[in-house]
Amino acid sequence: MTDEVGLRTRKKLRTREAISNAALGLFIERGYENVTLSEIARAAEVSVATVFSYFPDGKDALVFEQDEDRPAAIAEAIQTRGDGASVMDAVEAFILSRGPFRKGNAATPVQRLIAETAPLRAYAQKRWAACEPVLRSALAEESRRPEDVNVRALARYVLEIPEIAAQDADPRATVGQLFTRLRAGWGIA
């Protein structure tokens, strides 16, 4: 039974990867807006229904790392931060470990595709916005304040940083600059 479960899991992972690779190849070759789900399904040798079963959010989801539950991942980064590190430090490090913000990371074709495609930028922002409740709670706990308008605003501003920085020539440096400004503005430098 264990071998069968392992085989099933491996087959699902291969199918997911085939769909994702087919989509990315088509998007990069022809542009996101010029590719249909039917074309992706054909290229991956699966049905459109199979594409939706693996990627229920549709075309947008095909471009992003889907195995990550972003709110859970950011919560873990906050909970496991080192001694003396603030919530802001943990979130900054978390952002810097992703996509175009990784150290020494030159923009990949996928990152350029995201930066140049409005629906993909919106989807990326939606994924960051899903972290707001986790971040609000952590900021409120750390500052010993209620989740008031100030805490909500800070959480929202922090989660806008990836969108703003991804559009800049040096995304990693921009992340650092924006965190520095937010810390100073909120008196948490």
Secondary-structure topology with pairs:
Layout: H1 2-30, H2 37-44, H3 48-54, H4 70-79, H5 87-96, H6 109-116, H7 118-129, H8 132-143, H9 149-166, H10 171-185
Organism: Propionicimonas paludicola
Protein name: TetR family transcriptional regulator
Domain HTH tetR-type: 13-73
Q: How would you describe what is shown here?
A:
The chain is mostly helical. It has two domains: 1-63, Homeodomain-like (Arc Repressor Mutant, subunit A, Orthogonal Bundle); 70-184, Orthogonal Bundle (Tetracycline Repressor, domain 2). It is 68% helix and 0% strand. The protein has helices at 2-30, 37-44, 48-54, 70-79, 87-96, 109-116, 118-129, 132-143, 149-166, 171-185. The model has no long low-confidence stretch (mean pLDDT 89).
Number of helices: 10
Secondary-structure arrangement, i.e. CATH architecture of the largest domain: Orthogonal Bundle
Q: What structural class do helix, strand and pairing data support? A: mainly alpha
- Count the domains: 2
How would you spell out the order of helices and strands?
HHHHHHHHHH
Sketch the major β-sheet: none
Helix content: 55-70%
N- to C-terminal distance? 55 Å
* Low-pLDDT residue intervals, each spanning 5 or more residues: none
